[in-house]
Task: inverse folding
């Protein structure tokens, strides 16, 4: 059969479908380079693998259409008469083309991974764990689409089947996303049955083992169902094609009935601290960001020097990971993980560490209060830095005006009061309190 | 009238139109739920892509080589065929959807151009490819204003007042119509 | 001599129309020409012999296997070669790939498959076009590729429906020689309108009209049936016309 698979690979549309997948996927990765958003996937192998899973939202319906097109070949070529006189049973005849389709799509999917690999290899410090399982499930999802397309294309051998399957399945999947959003957000179960991810991962998250296992069962069920539908030679077997997906669903359901935290848990290895060991004040970043450590050290120590004005000043700088639930000790200055990668300018990085006097942003849903907190943190940073505005991006005139007023209010107070207020901002930040109220300089507070 | 009827039947348009209209109504209806207008635009774009992809099958006859030997002038007929696809698809979707009419007209023009282009390049059997691929890219990726490359890729999902999306749609419509009207569908017997 | 095809009262329907209406036929090794006017049921008969259509009445034995009940079709089909009237093919395949693909479907063992493909292509004179795509072939080459796929498994029963369409005179001569060679050990049934092909290559001729067998004999016997007054340019053409006319004049006669 191997020679026949070779013929099918060369002459059927399987490799074309794989090439299309690779081109569209690679384009999807690198179109983000125009806005410098490749950080969404190039920081870790894990992120690349997960981002590919997100892109399946486009590739999955197209693989379905490609499968249906391939299944219509015998009819289009008017060769059914001749095939009807051959001894090989239908399933045996169709096996090589199914295998070729699976190979084409697999290679296409892996080529997208390969296209992203050079960037990840240069940008990522921490490899991330379990990315191969995420990729394997992605391959399974794409092959499931190809096989379902083959199966439906053989069942409904009409000229319109590929088009209706392609665009129609995307429309239904988008509707399904909306439907899953209506449900409880902390229980992502139904959304995990979709053949693609609906949101990105952070650098600290992994895909839970039970999620990959559950999705693998469900998608393998779809693969088997599509294959049975494609190879079926009579009506009874076609009806039996629903059995593997149902079986997969039954096996997957207990694995996928979990909370969002367990579905995409924090990777302990990614949040392990990597610290300086040169004897100076300690500066620590997470393993996920270990590559940034050399550039962070000097600005961080500068920030520690400036923070020393305060009573109870911190002695080390650490990267803060959201969602860990660890309280911040008074002896440490924390900087938001997102701030590390936002700038290359040492002065700006120092100012970012000084925001909120070395405490991470504690977010609140109320937007006006949220903006007030941001302003208070910026003014605190400016006070510690000794210059207003502190180094950083420019703001609109109205926004800058508000900040100027807060700054003027702060520096109008006596020096001791200024120091007390800034220390209060830090104290509030340590316990996730209201930093705007702690500063109390304007914005109606 | 008989000639038009025979022409449409020779290209399997009646069955295709039935399939296209029901598919467009179903997909466009999916976007009319309680969701905000972004979903209506996405659903309308997908509905148009699907409907026009199906109608595109009628852009060629069973034997386009035989068609080229006909004495009649094809160019005006091809042009009216494209215009009919545009009008029919836009009308059906505009009735169902809650998306702005400007979006429906723009997307219908763009997808009609793509179907015409695919028919001219790959033949009628593959006339669905370009509308479906573009529709899936446009519908699957959130229609963001930035970066510009993504803005262009998701032209069909952009709001009605986007000049770039409008330009893309007009370009596709003009290029597709020009290619199809002058060259006709790809000669049969050369696609698998 | 063993009987490869044996039909008794065979009836085959295409839709509601009974295209083969009570055929009795017994054929062994040799080349058998199937002659008859349009609509005589030649193609339907060949399709039934190719196991594509199931007979709805009568008995049919192929290669000793009865075709009623639940026949072992695989065994019959392994020894079957078939060139349909409308020969479908995969346009993107090369000639060698297409013939190899068909050889695989006919369960030619993998070890000898490539050799069988080369030999089949050589026999139809297409060895030099083995690497060409099917879609690039001219009509005559396509027909020869069709013959090559039909003979690739060295069939015991070879069914060729209009094999000489599109062949130029030289190729037809070669084809007749190939037919004679194949007929030495296989049962070859050739449906055609070209009476001279039959005269030159066939050991027996089956004349069909309106779903029935009108005559079964040697080419010489057909030629002998014609007189100077019958339509045709050669003795066998005149014999053909005479036999068809005679049958139509007395439709009640069955052989």
Result:
């Amino acid at each position: 059969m191997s020679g026949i698979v070779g013929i099918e690979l060369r002459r059927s549309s399987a490799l074309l479908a794989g090439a299309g997948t690779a081109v569209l996927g690679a384009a999807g990765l690198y179109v983000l380079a125009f806005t410098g958003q490749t950080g969404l996937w190039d920081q870790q192998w894990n992120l690349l693998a997960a981002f590919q899973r997100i892109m399946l939202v486009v590739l999955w319906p197209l693989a379905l259409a490609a499968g249906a097109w391939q299944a219509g070949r015998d009819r289009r070529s008017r060769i059914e008469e001749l095939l009807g006189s051959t001894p090989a049973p239908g399933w045996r005849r169709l096996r090589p083309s199914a295998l070729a389709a699976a190979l084409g799509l697999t290679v296409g999917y892996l080529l997208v991974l390969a296209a992203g690999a050079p960037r990840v290899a240069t940008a990522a410090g921490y490899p991330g764990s379990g990315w191969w399982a995420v990729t394997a499930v992605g391959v399974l999802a794409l092959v499931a689409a190809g096989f379902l397309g083959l199966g439906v294309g053989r069942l409904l051998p009409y000229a319109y089947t590929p088009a209706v399957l392609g665009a129609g399945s995307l429309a239904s999947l988008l509707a399904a996303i909306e439907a899953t959003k209506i449900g409880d957000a902390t229980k992502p179960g139904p959304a995990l049955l979709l053949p693609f991810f609906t949101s990105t991962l952070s650098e600290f998250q992994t895909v839970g083992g039970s999620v990959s296992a559950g999705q693998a069962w469900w998608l393998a069920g779809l693969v088997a169902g599509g294959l049975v539908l494609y190879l079926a030679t009579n009506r009874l077997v076609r009806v039996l094609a629903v059995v593997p997906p149902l079986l997969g669903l039954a096996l997957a359901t207990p694995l996928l009935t979990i909370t969002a935290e367990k579905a995409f848990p924090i990777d302990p290895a990614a949040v392990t601290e990597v610290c300086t060991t040169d004897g100076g004040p300690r500066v620590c970043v997470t393993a996920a960001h270990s590559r940034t450590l050399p550039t962070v050290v000097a600005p961080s120590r500068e920030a520690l020097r400036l923070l020393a004005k305060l009573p109870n000043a911190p002695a080390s700088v650490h990267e803060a990971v959201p969602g860990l639930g660890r309280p911040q000790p008074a002896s440490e200055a924390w900087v938001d993980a997102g701030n590390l990668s936002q700038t290359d300018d040492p002065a700006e990085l120092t100012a970012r560490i000084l925001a909120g006097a070395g405490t991470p942003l504690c977010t609140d849903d109320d937007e006006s209060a949220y903006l007030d907190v941001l302003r208070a943190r910026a003014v605190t940073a400016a006070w510690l830095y000794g210059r207003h505005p502190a180094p950083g991006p420019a703001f609109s005139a109205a926004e800058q005006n508000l900040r100027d007023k807060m700054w003027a209010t702060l520096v109008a107070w006596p020096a001791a009061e200024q120091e007390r207020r800034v220390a209060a901002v830090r104290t509030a930040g340590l316990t996730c309190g209201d930093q705007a109220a702690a500063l109390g300089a304007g914005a109606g507070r | 009238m008989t000639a038009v009827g025979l022409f449409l039947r020779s290209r399997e348009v009646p069955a295709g139109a039935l399939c296209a209209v029901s598919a467009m109504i179903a997909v466009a209806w999916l976007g009319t739920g309680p969701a905000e207008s972004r979903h209506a635009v996405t659903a309308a774009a997908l509905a148009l892509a699907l409907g026009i992809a199906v109608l595109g099958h009628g852009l060629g006859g069973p034997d386009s080589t035989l068609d080229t030997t006909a004495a009649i002038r094809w160019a005006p007929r091809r042009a009216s065929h494209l215009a009919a696809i545009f009008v029919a698809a836009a009308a059906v979707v505009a009735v169902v959807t809650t998306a702005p009419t400007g979006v429906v007209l723009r997307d219908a023009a763009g997808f009609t151009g793509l179907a015409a282009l695919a028919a001219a390049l790959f033949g009628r059997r593959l006339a669905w490819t370009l509308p479906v691929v573009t529709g899936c890219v446009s519908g699957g990726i959130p229609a963001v204003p930035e970066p510009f490359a993504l803005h262009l890729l998701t032209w069909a999902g952009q709001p009605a007042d986007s000049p770039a999306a409008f330009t893309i749609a007009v370009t596709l419509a003009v290029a597709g119509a020009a290619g199809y009207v002058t060259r006709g569908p790809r000669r049969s017997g050369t696609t698998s | 001599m063993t009987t490869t095809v044996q039909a008794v009262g065979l009836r085959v329907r295409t839709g509601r129309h009974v295209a083969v209406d009570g055929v009795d036929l017994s054929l062994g090794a040799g080349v058998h020409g199937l002659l008859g006017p349009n609509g005589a049921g030649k193609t339907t008969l060949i399709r039934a012999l190719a196991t594509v259509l199931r007979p709805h009445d009568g008995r049919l034995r192929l290669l000793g296997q009865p075709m009623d009940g639940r026949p072992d079709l695989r065994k019959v089909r392994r020894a079957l070669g078939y060139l349909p009237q409308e020969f479908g093919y995969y346009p993107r395949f090369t000639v060698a790939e297409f013939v190899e693909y068909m050889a695989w479907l006919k369960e030619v063992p993998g070890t000898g498959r490539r050799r069988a493909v080369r030999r089949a292509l050589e026999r139809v004179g297409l060895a030099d076009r083995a690497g060409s795509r099917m879609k690039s072939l001219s009509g005559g080459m396509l027909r020869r590729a069709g013959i090559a796929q039909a003979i690739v498994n060295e069939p015991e029963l070879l069914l060729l429906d209009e094999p000489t369409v599109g062949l130029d005179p030289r190729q037809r001569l070669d084809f007749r020689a190939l037919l004679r060679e194949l007929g030495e050990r296989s049962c070859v049934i050739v449906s055609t309108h070209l009476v001279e092909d039959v005269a030159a290559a066939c050991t027996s001729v089956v004349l069909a009209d309106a779903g029935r067998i009108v005559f079964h004999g040697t080419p010489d016997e057909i030629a002998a049936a014609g007189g100077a007054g019958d339509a045709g340019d050669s003795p066998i053409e005149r014999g053909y016309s005479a036999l068809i006319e005679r049958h139509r004049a007395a439709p009640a006669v069955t052989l």
Notes: Chain B has nine helices and no strands. The two ends of chain B are 34 Å apart (CA to CA). The mean pLDDT of chain B is 90. Residues 34 and 40 of chain B are 10 Å apart (CA to CA).
